[in-house]
Please model this.
Amino acid sequence: MVRASFASLVSLLAAPGATVLLGGCDSVVVDAAISYDDRFPDTVIDVYSPLATGELRPAVLVIHGGGWRDGSDRTSMAAGAERLAQAGYVAINVEYRRVPGGEFPRAVQDCLCALAFVRQNAARWQIDPARIAGFGYSAGGHLVSMLGAAASEPAIAPDCAAGTTGPLAAVASGAGIHDMAAMPRVYIITQFMGGFVEDLPERYAQASPLSHVTAGAPPYLFLHGDQDVGVWISQSRRMADALEAAGTSARVLAIPGGGHLFNHGADTQWSTTSAIDTPESWAALIVFLDRTIGGAS
Model:
């Protein structure tokens, strides 16, 4: 696994002649609250599209965090989705069922349904269905990692009208949990899992991206604060190590002083910026997307 500074990570990720694209499209069109599974009110997406070019475009499935619980929703990732669209990517901001009602495996199944729906309707937004990456934070970081490593796992196969689908083409996971059993007494995890690890060991393994790493997994970028005490950075590093052992490209960008919801500022005071919202994270994310799903034009 490569544990890199921002400058060295960008150098590792960038193809020769690649440009870090942080902006460019001035106009973004938003298709809001599109249902991808009519059975449930929460299963909707907002699609942020840059100006049409007449060519198929890469896309990013954006998945919010919040402990898989009610009280959090996709509005927390709306600014990020718009920023991705301004950089030339079609951004799909996903809502999913949350606890209560979204316990594992339902939240994962919903995100797989959203991915299958977008692929089935790719022409509507001029998306190349083979070039869809995922970007999520916290619980969303867990969910995108599951969509990269466990999309074909029968235990989480969705039963929505869109059906099953293959894994994401690339995964950018921010501060996600990759081994549920490593945090066995955390309340939000026991609620999401429906009990304790000693009672549900198989379920905990099924919900852990780390358990599903095999050869052929898509490339991963991990963005994680090195002072995160909500989800230790070892969660990202262990997943990256397992991916690299299986032959998959995996990079970890550790954000100095970064916490889970708060980061140290230059004056050593705490600020309310998550690890995925730092300039370093955004630059590394865009370079990663450019390299893995073909870049935005």
The first helix runs from residue 6 to 13. Residues 2-292 form a domain with the Rossmann fold fold (CATH 3.40.50.1820). The two ends are 30 Å apart (CA to CA). The longest strand covers residues 127-137.
